[in-house]
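Inverse folding, one chain.
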């Protein structure tokens, strides 16, 4: 949903690496601040979960995931105008993710996600036909079409992960996937080149996306 806060084990979290980057801090100093908070009060430990990441040199280093409370404690020590702006952005991001977590538990979200899976299945079946069609036209990378069209639909619907999408985003995604399967079927029937079919899909989706944006505002 956003790049600052994301879901981990159904909880809204951010991580120390990203916090260090956004606030212009050395990651080792952010880690030290977290270590100090935990050392001062053991109750703080539940707000931070230790993990690891691999750097460019292949070495593993530690990092922390933190919930809203952990972030709030950590960010108290960050001062300055730019730091304030990032704090506000993180607050908005946590609010957005926590609202989504509540929405995800509703029957409407569950039913919308279920319906979306059926649409996705129909789209996948259509792309399977396109893969064979593209192979017949000489494509040596036709299997990549599954990923290509999936990325296209997600991008046009504003989605990174389907399980982290709102009801509105899921509905938009289903619309995009229905358009794709229609355009692909039409393109195959008309004997178009598979690359032209993709261009037609993209053009149609962009028009629908722009229309949806205008209606939203």
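Residues assigned per position:
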């Amino acid at each position: 949903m956003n790049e600052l806060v994301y879901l981990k084990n159904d909880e809204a979290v951010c991580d120390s690496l990203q916090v260090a980057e956004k606030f212009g801090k050395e990651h080792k100093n952010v880690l030290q601040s977290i270590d100090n908070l935990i050392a001062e009060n053991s109750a703080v430990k539940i707000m931070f979960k230790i993990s690891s990441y691999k750097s460019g040199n292949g070495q593993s280093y530690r990092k922390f995931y933190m919930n809203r409370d952990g972030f709030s404690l950590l960010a108290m020590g960050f001062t300055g105008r730019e730091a304030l702006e990032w704090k506000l952005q993180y607050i908005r991001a946590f609010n957005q993710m926590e609202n989504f977590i509540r929405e995800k538990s509703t029957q409407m979200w569950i039913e919308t996600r279920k319906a979306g899976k059926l649409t996705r299945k129909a789209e996948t079946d259509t792309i399977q036909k396109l893969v064979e069609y593209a192979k017949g036209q000489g494509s040596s990378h036709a299997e990549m079409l599954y990923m290509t069209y999936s990325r296209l639909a997600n991008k046009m619907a504003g989605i990174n992960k389907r399980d982290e999408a709102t009801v509105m985003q899921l509905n938009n995604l289903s619309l995009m996937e229905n358009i794709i399967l229609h355009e692909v079927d039409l393109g195959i029937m008309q004997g178009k080149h598979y690359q032209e079919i993709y261009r037609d899909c993209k053009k149609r989706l962009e028009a629908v996306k722009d229309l949806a944006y205008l209606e939203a505002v």
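Strands lie at 6-8, 11-15, 48-54, 60-66. The CA atoms of residues 38 and 44 lie 5 Å apart.
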